[in-house]
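Support request, please re-run this one:
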Amino acid sequence: MDLIEEEAFAKVVLDKKLEDVCANCFQESIVKKLSHCAKCKIIHYCSRECQISDWINHKPECKANLRIFGKVLYQDDRLIARIIWKLARDGDPPALNGRRWADLDGFRDGKHFPITESELDGFMEALAMYMGSDLPKRDVVKNIIHKIDYNRMEIMNDQLMSIGIGIYVGLVAHKHSCNPDGHILFSGGKAVFRSRKKGVTYSKDLTVNHLSLMQTKEERNEHIVRNFGKECNCQVCQDETRDQMAMSVRCAACPKGVCPLNLDAGQLLCSTCGRKAPIGIKEALKSNQQVKQQYWELHKRKKMDFRACMAESVNVYDRNVSKLSHINLYLARLASIIQKLCAALKDKDLCRQFATTPLESYNYFLSPGDRDLTEVHFRSVVCMSLALDNPKNTPELRNLIQLTLSLASVSHGERFRAYAGGADSSFFSYLGSEEESEQHICDTVIETEGRIQPKDFHIIRVPKQ
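Re-run finished. Output below.
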């Protein structure tokens, strides 16, 4: 359930999304072309009302855009500029929970987001050309940069794709936990604190997760230490068996046997039958590292040849799938990336192979209400529908859709209708009539929010054609 929402202290659309996202309400429009500002022609709006509403923020920005002859300043610089103008215009008003810009943490003892003087020179030079006499002193800009690095949030659309960056002074104060009370979603440009449980009231002491839980403790804490200054010591991080299962290998004797990767043990044993794993610890670590490396290499690439990346990823997956278990976290993450690639390329054979491959692992490590769990189920629906010759008459797809909608109702509430593309989208059309689609949306929101349980999960396979 939604507990509270907050307007951004300052926010900007990503460079690559400037023509597709309204700079005021942050609604995305791929089909309908947005209208640009008549003067600077850089910032876009979905309506006259949004343009008028954002004018107080865009007025100095518009002049600045003209000052640099219509060039697009990098998104980080644009956010810095908007914050400078905001502070000069409005001072430092309190947020929803009393927090102010001045209360935000910034640079800590040279350990977080160090910025060299030469890098600061680059910021100052770009901002001086952009802002002119509005640019404050060097130390003020440096402080703002540090606070942005430490506190900014990525603004996501309903499909959890990044469309902007912003500062939310109130909600950013919530401490991280890998076993959180809730999570933050976005309704356009507003940040929404959403609890997974009913009966919870908003409190500044509630925790949120600031990263994906489809990571090992080492990966999570690398991010947490870099961003928050100390390791997380929550219940999830204290669970040593979680990482052992995350890096587990297959048992040769049991169809679903899992051999946890316990580095302190002399050998790897199946948790079901107790037999020795077919590979040793050294080979298990090597196999996990290969899959993990492929996943991160794909994430680091700025430009991607989809077909080449898919071939590389499938090759790595095929080399290791016989060694790693069906719930291995790294293998599931790579399979999830392959899902994205084969869906984008509409590769029917690979869509069939990977349609539901990651689900067992995601269901094991995540609980209903987690956005990543919802996302991977939606992606599985897309892949399965592409793989089938007659998707409308396939019970397996219908069952997967109903489970996915139930998950979405927990993680997104009633806004999951937008997540799925609306009741008239092809997603809902697989349910049958429009009335049935609407009724299922209603039933899902009313009956399952906060009450869907892990026991309700079952693996749905793509039927043979």
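Residues 241 and 268 are 13 Å apart (CA to CA). Residues 281-300 form the longest helix (20 residues).
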